[in-house]
């Protein structure tokens, strides 16, 4: 938590220490939605940072555990995705994540995922770079073909041993025999109450520790190595896209405004405006699967 706070404070201080101007392109009262103008900026950009959030995941048909699909059984994800909940009831928390893993395995990347991946591949051939900085814990950016992805909230398809810390990619379905057919989300479904030795376990020799999903639970520290990489990308990018995120979860909510404060154009692609829209040069309203492909074509 301390590190996370430090990271947030560091970003915050940086923002406060710079005049948070709206960049040279946005002298008008609000961001532009002029796609032709955006396309001119895009055609000149060498290093593009694309920040993505739950909206991109939702367009693949995955629940975001926010708003109307906030619940799994009678709990909200904030009640389950915590270190306390996991140590109190690892079986229930594993059922929740097993449900989410199985859903991800059944879904395909959306038009927005593909537009981003194709853009990265095309620009790479021209010596230009695209990095995806995502809050999504699913694997859909990589499935779509994105190579350079920084996952600040972890990866649903990875496990981490609570004893030895070993992290590994694991796409097994089900992840262990005891979870087969478990994890149904209905409000009246009873807990499976799987004994802890039947939950996913570490296969490192002599360890056999309990595994957990390698995701950042509420109240946990973000990986400082990944945050350092994100910081570097935000410092060198000459165009930033903020895609499908409500810009309310920190520190990611600050990334776009931080780039804008350097006078770099930032374009937001989202269903609605957000608390950060006013900092940005461009805002394109609508599903990102509709707005993004022509923007990045
Ligand atoms: Zn282990």
Automatic annotation (TrEMBL):
Keywords, sorted A to Z: Cytoplasm, Metal-binding, Mitochondrion, NAD, Nucleus, Transferase, Transit peptide, Zinc
Cofactor(s), by name: Zn(2+)
Keyword rRNA processing: no
Cell compartment(s), UniProt: Mitochondrion; Cytoplasm, Cytosol; Nucleus
GO cellular component: cytosol; mitochondrion; nucleus
Pfam families: SIR2
Annotated cofactor note: Binds 1 zinc ion per subunit.
EC code(s) of this entry: 2.3.1.-
Binding site for Zn(2+): 161, 164, 202, 207
Catalytic activity: N(6)-succinyl-L-lysyl-[protein] + NAD(+) + H2O = 2''-O-succinyl-ADP-D-ribose + nicotinamide + L-lysyl-[protein]; N(6)-glutaryl-L-lysyl-[protein] + NAD(+) + H2O = 2''-O-glutaryl-ADP-D-ribose + nicotinamide + L-lysyl-[protein]; N(6)-malonyl-L-lysyl-[protein] + NAD(+) + H2O = 2''-O-malonyl-ADP-D-ribose + nicotinamide + L-lysyl-[protein]
Active-site residues per Swiss-Prot or TrEMBL entry: 153
Matches recorded under InterPro entries: DHS-like_NAD/FAD-binding_dom (IPR029035), NAD-dep_sirtuin_deacylases (IPR050134), Sirtuin (IPR003000), Sirtuin_cat_small_dom_sf (IPR026591), Sirtuin_class_III (IPR027546), Ssirtuin_cat_dom (IPR026590)
Binding site for substrate: 97, 100
HAMAP family membership: Sirtuin_ClassIII (MF_01121)
This protein's domain notes: In contrast to class I sirtuins, class III sirtuins have only weak deacetylase activity. Difference in substrate specificity is probably due to a larger hydrophobic pocket with 2 residues (Tyr-97 and Arg-100) that bind to malonylated and succinylated substrates and define the specificity.
Entry-linked PANTHER family: NAD-DEPENDENT PROTEIN DEACYLASE SIRTUIN-5, MITOCHONDRIAL-RELATED
Task performed by this protein: NAD-dependent lysine demalonylase, desuccinylase and deglutarylase that specifically removes malonyl, succinyl and glutaryl groups on target proteins. Has weak NAD-dependent protein deacetylase activity; however this activity may not be physiologically relevant in vivo.
Homology family: Belongs to the sirtuin family. Class III subfamily.
Name of the protein in question: NAD-dependent protein deacylase sirtuin-5, mitochondrial
Native source organism of the sequence: Sphaeramia orbicularis
């Amino acid at each position: 938590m301390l590190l996370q706070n430090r990271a947030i404070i560091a970003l915050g201080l940086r923002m406060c220490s710079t005049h948070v101007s709206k960049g040279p392109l946005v002298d008008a009262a609000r961001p532009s939605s002029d796609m032709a103008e955006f396309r001119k900026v895009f055609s000149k950009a060498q290093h593009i940072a694309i920040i993505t959030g739950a909206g991109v995941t939702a367009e693949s048909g995955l629940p975001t555990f926010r708003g109307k699909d906030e619940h799994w059984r009678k709990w909200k994800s904030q009640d389950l995705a915590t270190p306390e909940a996991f140590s109190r009831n690892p079986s229930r928390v594993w059922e929740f994540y097993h449900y989410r893993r199985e859903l991800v395995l059944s879904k395909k990347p959306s038009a927005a995922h593909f537009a981003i991946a194709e853009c990265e591949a095309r620009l790479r051939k021209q010596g230009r770079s695209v990095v995806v900085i995502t809050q999504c814990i699913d694997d859909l950016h990589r499935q779509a073909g994105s190579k350079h992805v920084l996952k600040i909230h972890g990866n649903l398809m990875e496990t981490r041993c609570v004893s030895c810390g070993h992290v590994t990619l694991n796409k097994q379905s089900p992840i262990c025999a005891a979870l087969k057919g478990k994890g149904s989300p209905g409000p009246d479904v009873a807990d499976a109450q799987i004994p802890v030795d039947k939950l996913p376990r570490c296969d490192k020799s002599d360890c056999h520790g309990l595994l957990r999903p390698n995701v950042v639970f509420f109240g946990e520290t973000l990986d400082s190595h990944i945050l350092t990489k994100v910081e570097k990308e935000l410092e060198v990018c000459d165009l930033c896209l903020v895609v499908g995120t409500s810009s309310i979860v920190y520190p990611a909510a600050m990334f776009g405004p931080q780039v804008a404060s350097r006078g770099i154009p930032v374009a937001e692609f989202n269903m609605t405006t957000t608390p950060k829209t006013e900092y940005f040069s461009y805002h394109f309203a609508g599903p990102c699967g509709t707005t993004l492909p022509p923007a990045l074509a």
